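The data are quoted verbatim for completeness:
=====
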Amino acid sequence: MVCEAMDFAGGIASTNPARVQLAAGRVPAGIRKLDASSKWLVTAGQTAAVVIRHDVLSPYIVLGGIAASLLTAKIKRIVNQRRPAGSPLTDPGMPSSHALVATFMSVAWVTQIQSSMISMMLLASAVLISVLRVICGHHTWAQVGVGTAVGTVLSLVWMVLGQDIIRSPKSLETKVVYVMYAALSVLFLAKQIRKGRMRNAALKSESVLS
């Protein structure tokens, strides 16, 4: 999966229900839905690649995205830069993990495929995800810009490190990659269920108080 790379590392981001309602009033519903569903669309595409290709490349890219996200979470805590005023999220925003991971995945695939058209579509999707984060008030342009730059560098380094595994995968290496991919996917799903319950509880609490 890809969502785990975007959300897994940083813990469960806290939300301010009042800010959620404020942001909802500023941004068209269609844009907000597209932003909210972007990680699931990316996940669907990556999961389809794992199932259809049945190779070591697809899960290897996801594992790299998770590793990059873990590093990003640490950077966020060190930099501790606030998200833009009015953002419904209250955790640090520099750099944008969505922009970083989307760019990481796109660049990783671009280094492995031969189609210029597909490469352009992948890179354009990463740009779209980054722009949506700004439009919806989750990040500043600087935060998504840094996320994009760091994601590009980390992706190129990750793919260089994995050249031997990708080009001449051994049975044991492939099994290890798939086991790690499956384990992190299960952990992510459990986290998303918990995250959804906490968010719904917060919104219900705010509704009762108002």
Observations:
- Residues 171-209 form the longest helix (39 residues).
- The domain at 3-196 is CATH 1.20.144 (Vanadium-containing Chloroperoxidase; domain 1).
- The two ends are 38 Å apart (CA to CA).
- The chain has nine helices and no strands.
